[in-house]
Design goal:
heterodimer; A: Dipeptide-binding Protein, domain 3; five-stranded mixed β-sheet; B: 325 residues; MetI-like fold; 2 domains
């Protein structure tokens, strides 16, 4: 009996100590820091080495740490290029084959960990730092998907081959020249192209083209991914990045005040640095918990989770009275992206039967889909070209983008004829997820297609398996995918239909090949922006719309909520370093949310 | 006992190696190509070759040929005799996603999982035994009915619903606890309160029902009847004789869950954003991060075998009839 008593009391003591410990910890909880911006991030970053960055979460963080030659104006729509590390937009030769770029002077690298340069401030950014960074983008040993941005540069292929042939990467001669990249002096870069590539200027506003310090890369080697050394408004120390937990950016103390500011320009001390001292990104994998945290006023802005939409929006796009009372405002912006169901054009059934694809496209009720799965946050796609692009026309007539069951049934008769009079066999739809939303979406498409007699067998899988089937083995028959554009030029989307992009892992995942489209694409891709090029883009879209290699789902519309104390907030794409514009009204934040 | 322990350790070796081998074969032949996951969209053949080289996927799956390795200008090591044996020798490679040594990641995240799971386990076990004892004491009377009803109700409500209820009512609604999150060091303690409360509430029912059944089985044994006939009081009977004899199933149940305390609860960690091993494992599964999955499989299988051995040893302490030979 005594032993049992001791065990019991011992247990009570342990549990009691635990409860008291936790209770006491509440007394020491500190409030949110007034000089820090608090933001959620939902997917952990893969790398902070600009050369390797191709995913949105990494770009979102790295965009605050690095700068490029060019950027986009944060406030202007449609997006407008501005010079950042360059003094002006490039001087382009008449034949479009030579670009000359002049650099701003007096901008220095900053290493927050201080391991490369004592005092953390590095040398001035010069032309050689850009050329070194671009050589890294083309380095075989640094696996990255960004090499394509310099495909048109003279000597790029030779450099790539040289790095691949140099088996020991430490033996790569970084001083070996690339004919197309030339530093004519410390502050001037000349780029020579094999063929005109008018999108180069956008590529130079893309994070992978950011300058890199060779000293820093030599110091950190493979750890360059975790030790960003850039010139952006913020910096990230190694110890401030806790995977799957938190990323704390601190302002770069040697920042010059803004992308278009020359270091020599007199800028008031208060305007020289980003508005907020720190930005803390907190990691959340699930939708609902950060939503509650936002509602408590602990995040400064946040998206609206699908399952909490009713708590935020009353009708249409009107906020609920509770949120209005709290001073929360809704910010909206169309995303330059598209989501679609792709047909594998190499598949003997769906690839060879245009009538079947057309019938399926007409049987898909997009408006209902957007209302059900996006709470109305999206637009019915009229073609692959997305909103915000010069040739986007929301009123474009595309019969295959409209829900028309009667016409779809009529098309199905043709589809059966094409199939040799045989009924259409079951089609396999592959979805890159297996959660409830994916299952509901699978059911939705299944029901839509059943109306025209097409039976869908839906396969739910994870992203790794999905890519394997769609891009490697090319066994997926019908699949769901999306495309976020890298820059505001139609070529960035239309490249997804170019037959030369059909390869293992190539961009043309629907394996679409159309000689007429290819001819127009090859003609347009070397042209600068002009009415003629826009006409070509429109023609290409018309060809794709007729052939239906995609069944468009929606153009997404981005919604976010911000608290009343956050200033200068806009939803953006393409722009990097935009968080330096965000500001907090400390007094309002201190007051918190109006209750009652 | 020493001979038994040595024998069990020796038996553990083929079991763990077998588990690892099965995992390795599944990754090598069934799992999708991790280079595709890493590369993102728009990859070129050269990029895929580069990624495969970096991840060691350009090497043969099993044993390597020195001559071929030299010809290819790469390190002389097959996949099997590098990745597999490296893990066996506790030399973990870098995570594919995080580019950090797996050992370092696990060492950082395991204590976090343990910090939440251990209190849940301790509080839950004690409450389960106390409530089961109350039921057994009062079999068929209202305390038994109330506790049993509560336990069945708790078992019927999905874990996710209890979490969301806790977050929305106690966290967001009443503002008693932080809804979710984590900090560093001791600053994280207040974030633990709600996950612990929810974890205990969600896991209580099953254990109460189990221990109630075990205790009731014990209450109707001959020795209890004899002791009661000889005048031993009910309290003394339950706390001394019955409780001691139900320790065997308690030990079995307890020790086998210990390795999972380190692993954490996948759902709890995900919903409360606790940066523990559960989240790491889920991310590794989604991203096909082989080094993490191999290391976790290895670590858990070893821990499980060790705990099973400790269970056997613990039996001898709680039941004098058990002999390890």
């Amino acid at each position: 009996m005594r032993k049992v008593k001791w065990i019991f009391f011992g247990y009570l003591a342990v549990v009691g100590a635990l409860v008291v410990g936790i209770a006491l910890s509440f007394a020491s909880v500190s409030a949110r820091d007034p000089d820090t911006l608090y933001i959620v991030y939902i997917s952990d970053i893969k790398s902070l080495d600009p050369a390797e960055i191709s995913d949105v979460p990494s770009s979102r963080i790295a965009g605050n740490l690095f700068e490029c030659l060019y950027n986009y104006d944060y406030y202007k729509r449609p997006y407008e290029l501005i010079s950042e590390l360059a003094t002006a937009l490039p001087e382009i030769s008449k034949d479009g084959l030579e670009y000359t770029i002049h650099l701003r002077k007096g901008i220095h690298f900053y290493d927050p960990d201080g391991a490369v340069w004592p005092g953390k401030t590095g040398p001035e950014v010069k032309a050689k730092d850009f050329i070194y960074a671009w050589k890294r983008v083309l380095d075989f040993h640094l696996p990255n998907p960004n090499a394509a941005i310099f495909d048109a540069v003279v000597g790029a292929d030779e450099w790539q081959k040289y790095t691949e042939d140099t088996k020991d990467e430490s033996k790569i001669d970084w001083d070996r020249p690339i004919a197309g990249f030339e530093a004519t002096d410390d502050y001037t870069i000349r780029i020579k192209l094999k063929e005109p590539f008018p999108q180069l200027v956008y590529a130079l506003a893309h994070l992978p083209s950011a300058p890199m310090s060779r000293e820093a890369v030599d110091k950190y080697k493979k750890k360059t991914r975790q030790h960003p050394v850039g010139t952006g408004p913020y910096s990230l120390s190694y110890n401030d990045h806790l995977q799957q937990q938190r990323i704390l950016l601190k302002r770069n103390p040697i920042y010059r005040g803004g992308p278009m500011v020359d270091p020599g320009t007199p800028v008031a001390a208060k305007d020289r640095l980003p508005k907020m001292d720190r930005i803390q990104f907190e990691f959340f994998e699930e939708d609902l918990p950060p939503w509650y945290v936002f509602r408590e006023g602990l995040f400064d802005y946040h998206g609206i989770p699908k399952d909490a939409y009713g708590q935020a929006i009353r009708t249409g796009t009107e906020l609920t009275p509770e949120l209005v009372k709290q001073g929360v405002t809704l910010v909206k912006e169309p995303e330059p992206s598209i989501y679609y169901y792709g047909f594998n054009m190499q598949d003997p059934l769906v690839g060879k039967n245009k009538s079947l694809r057309q019938a399926m496209c007409m049987a898909f009720n997009r408006d209902q889909f957007i209302a059900t799965f996006r709470n109305g946050r999206g637009m019915r796609p009229v073609g692959p070209i997305v909103p915000g692009f010069p040739t986007f026309d929301p009123n474009l007539k595309n019969p295959y983008a409209e829900f028309n069951l009667e016409a779809a049934l009529e098309k199905m008769k043709e589809a059966v004829r094409v199939n040799g009079g045989e009924p259409i066999p079951t089609i396999r739809l592959l979805l890159p997820g297996s959660d409830t939303t994916f299952r509901q979406m699978g059911d939705f498409v299944q029901r839509n297609m059943a109306q025209i007699g097409v039976t869908l067998d839906v396969d739910y899988t994870n992203w790794a398996n999905f890519l394997e089937q769609v891009e490697k083995k090319k066994t997926a028959q019908f699949y769901q995918l999306g495309w976020n554009t890298d820059w505001p030029d139609e070529q960035n989307i239309l490249q997804l239909f170019w037959s030369k992009n059909i390869s293992e892992g190539g961009l043309n995942s629907s394996n679409y090949a159309n000689a007429e489209f290819d001819k127009l694409y090859e003609q347009a891709k070397v042209m600068s922006d002009s009415p003629e090029r826009r006409e070509l883009y429109k023609k290409m879209q018309a060809i794709v719309n007729e052939d239906c290699p995609w069944m468009g789902m929606f153009y997404p519309m981005d919604f976010a909520l911000q608290h009343r104390w956050l200033k200068n907030f806009k939803l953006v794409d393409y722009v990097h370093g935009w968080m330096a514009n965000l500001e907090i009204d400390k007094e309002l934040r201190k007051q918190g949310l109006p209750r009652g | 006992m020493l001979a038994y322990v040595i024998r069990r350790i020796l038996m553990t070796v083929p079991i763990v190696l077998g588990i690892l081998l099965i995992t390795f074969v599944l990754f090598s032949y069934v799992a999708p190509d991790p280079a595709f996951t890493v590369a993102g969209r728009g990859k070129k053949p050269a990029q895929l070759r580069a990624i495969r080289k970096e991840m060691g996927l350009d090497k043969p799956v099993w044993l390597d040929s020195r001559a071929k390795a030299e010809q290819d200008g790469r390190e002389y090591k097959g996949h099997f005799n590098s990745q597999f044996f490296d893990v066996v020798l506790w030399r973990f490679p870098e995570s594919i996603k995080y580019h950090q040594p797996v050992g370092e990641l696990i060492a950082r995240k395991a204590p976090v999982s343990l910090a939440v799971q251990l209190p849940i386990f301790l509080i839950e076990l004690g409450l389960q035994l106390i409530l089961a004892l109350i039921c057994a004491f009062n079999r068929g009377r209202w305390p038994d009915l109330v506790v049993t009803f509560g336990a069945v109700l708790g078992m019927c409500v999905p874990y996710l619903s209890i979490i969301i209820l806790g977050q929305s009512v106690l966290g967001f609604g009443a503002g008693i606890f932080p809804v979710a999150g984590w900090d560093t060091g001791l600053k994280s303690v207040h974030f633990m309160a709600l996950p612990i409360l929810v974890g205990v509430a969600a896991g209580l029912g099953g254990g109460v029902r189990f221990y109630r059944t075990v205790m009731l089985d014990e209450v109707y044994t001959d020795y209890v009847r004899t002791a009661r006939a000889k005048g031993v009081s009910r309290n003394n009977m339950m706390l001394t004789h019955v409780l001691r004899n139900v320790f065997i199933p308690v030990v079995t149940q307890t020790v086998t869950v210990l390795p999972y305390l380190l692993l954490g609860s996948l759902l709890l960690e995900r919903m409360f954003q606790i940066p523990g091993l559960g989240g790491l494992m889920v991310e590794a599964l989604f991203n096909n991060d082989r080094p993490i999955l191999l290391a976790m499989t290895y670590g858990i299988s070893i821990a499980y075998c060790v705990m099973l051995m400790l269970t056997d040893i613990a039996y001898t302490l709680v039941d004098p009839r058990v002999r390890l030979s």
